[in-house]
Amino acid sequence: EDTEPDYEDDLTPSPRRKHPGKRGAMNHLHNSFRKYLRDKRLLNSKNGSLPQSPSSQMVQAFNRDNESPPRLDNIAIDWNDSLSYASVIFDEDTMNLDDLRVLCIDKLRRTHQAHRDHSKIEGFANSQERENATCEFASRSSRRQRLDRLNTRRHGTLERRRKIIEQNHHRNPQTWDTIRRIINRLDADGMSGDETETPLGANPKKVRRVALPWISPEITGLLHAVESYAPAIYEENMSVPVGNASLPRLMEAKRTSQNSIAIARLPRNWYDGNWYKVNSSSAKALLGVRKDFEIPFLVR
C-alpha cells in the first residue's frame, strides 16, 4: 500500500527544485525575526537604506570618557562588510571570560607602563637626557624579558619532571612518591635555569644548566636522574614528541646563578653544605632549616 512519506522527523535535506518558488505557508519564526532586526535597524527594509555603523564621533566620545555608549537601538551593522578572522574557531578552554579578563588586564598594564615611560622621556627638555632615558628603559625591558624567559623555562622543567614521575610511578611507588614530595616542595624556585651555550649565529643551538648555589649536590643528582627517564616515556608510550624540538640541554653547569634566592624552611640536607657554612648566624636563622629528609637514590 502506498503511503505519504512522513518528513516530520527526517533530518535529510529536501531535494532541490527545478523551479524554485514560494513554499506553502510563511515561516512565522523567520518573519518575526526579520521584523525584529528591521525594528532595531540591523536589517534594511525593502525600500530603506543599508544599515550604518555608529558615527566616528560617537565612538571617539565613548573611548574618551567611557560615557554614553551606543544603545541597542543605536547599534547598526553593515552586513555587506566582510567578517574579520572568520576562520578562528572558538575554544571554550582558552577563550573563557576569566582568562580573557586576565589577558586584558595584563595588556592594559603593559600599555600603561609603556605610556608612562614615553611620558617620562618626553618630559626631558635636553636631547641627551631623552636619549639616556630611552637607553635605560630599553635595558630595563630587556632584563625583564630575560627574567620572563627564565621563569618560563623553570615552570616547563617543573611540569616535565612531574609528568616523568606520573609515568614511572608504577615501577616503584614508594621511591617515586618521595621524589614527588621533594619536587613539589622545591616548586619552580628550586628548578635551575638555562643559558645559551652555542656561540652567536652557530647551529644547532645548545643550552647549559645554570646551577643554584644553595642546593645540595644530592638533590641536583636526583633531579638529573629524573631527567634521564624522559626519553623512556616516549619509547614506552610509542609516541613521538610534537611541536618544535627542544634544544639539547647540557646538565653539567659551568657557573652558578648570582641572583637565586634560597628557599627557606627546607630540610638541612637539601642545602649545599659549603654554602650553608659561610652564611651568617642571622641568615641561618632566617632560613629556618628543618630536620633532614632522606633523599632517595634513583638509578639512571
UniProtKB/TrEMBL annotation:
Residues 1-29 are annotated as: Disordered. It comes from the Eukaryota. Residues 1-11 have a biased composition (Acidic residues). This is Uncharacterized protein. It comes from Suillus luteus UH-Slu-Lm8-n1.
